[in-house]
Design goal:
Rossmann fold, six-stranded mixed sheet, 305 residues, single chain, elongated, four-stranded parallel sheet, alpha/beta
């Protein structure tokens, strides 16, 4: 039985095609390692290419003129001029899509083109334990939800600490352990409806089986939730880097320990560079003996020279 394409409104455009390539918006001979079957299965159409010397952005805009096309995935070659992502145009690397993980990377790009992340990502992290960062995140989520914003909550704590705070208010649904570890992307509408909800907000947290193992596991879930909501709140454990483009709220106390921990975690902070240490030299000095007045002794001391 035929299934509907995953991203029917997306077209894939290969830029900087070799000499002899057909004009834009016509099928072309793609590299053997390029997963063209993924493009056909997901979009229902073959990839198209630009003619030699043709502006890839102009070709992408021409494809967007079709009312049935909502986004274009533009794949450029390494030697091509840099092209910036624009509304409706997602730019990716053709070489990366031809690599060992090319099929997974292509799926991520296609889903990003069909469902571009629009939500603001807000990261809440405590400078140290016991400051109430997770509790503050829940109050913030409830306040934003009450103002009419679409809010999603993600708990990145490997121990699933946020789920303990939510208590019995969380409905049954998928946890981190139920999601496949190697999934490159999730369909936003499927993931949102499969997660448990707290006061009408989807929550992705851990349980007794654990949470995410590393920061790289966060990206597919965050991208999917950001495509369906206005605000995504991330409870980030200490020591993990904040995702690119996120706004960080660092919760700290009014004590020296919290201040030092906050300074060490602060994103973009550079530790003060130490001066190069000079070599040690041993110098013998004559010192007066404190027990025998009038007597002296030789003492060795190490100094920096």
């Amino acid at each position: 039985m035929d299934t509907a394409p995953l991203v029917p409104n997306v077209r894939v455009l290969l830029a900087s095609a070799p000499d002899g390539a057909p004009p834009a918006a016509h099928p072309l001979a793609v590299p053997d390692s390029f997963p063209a079957d993924i493009v056909r299965a997901c979009t229902g159409a073959d990839p198209v290419g630009t003619a030699p010397g043709e502006d890839p952005l102009g070709s992408a805009r021409a494809l967007l003129a079709d009312p049935e096309v909502s986004a274009v995935l533009l794949l450029t070659r390494q030697e091509s001029p840099a092209v910036q992502t624009q509304p409706g145009i997602v730019v990716g690397s053709l070489e990366r899509c031809c690599g060992p993980d090319g099929a997974d990377h292509l799926m991520v790009l296609l889903l990003a083109a069909q469902h571009p992340p629009r939500a603001r990502l807000l990261v809440v992290v405590g400078a140290r334990g016991g400051l109430g960062a997770s509790t503050f995140l829940l109050h913030l989520a409830r306040a934003c939800h009450a103002r009419g914003s679409g809010v999603a909550i993600v708990d990145a704590d490997p121990a699933g600490g946020l789920g303990l705070l939510l208590g019995d208010g969380v409905l049954p649904g998928l946890r981190w352990a139920d999601l496949p570890d190697d999934e490159p992307a999730f369909r936003p509408e499927k993931l949102t409806t499969a997660l448990p909800a707290w006061l009408g907000m989807p929550v992705l947290t851990g349980d007794g089986r654990g949470g995410p193992r590393d920061p790289q596991q966060l990206r597919p879930a965050l991208d999917a939730l950001r495509a369906q909501h206005d605000l995504v709140l991330l409870d980030l454990p200490r020591g993990w880097p904040a995702p690119p483009g996120a706004t960080v709220l660092l919760v700290s106390g009014l004590d020296l320990r919290s201040a030092v921990a906050a300074e060490l975690w602060r994103p973009g902070s550079r530790r003060r560079q130490r001066r190069p240490r000079r070599p040690l030299r041993r110098i013998w000095r004559v010192r007066a003996s404190p027990r025998r007045p009038g007597c002296t002794r030789w003492c060795a001391s190490s100094v920096r020279t």
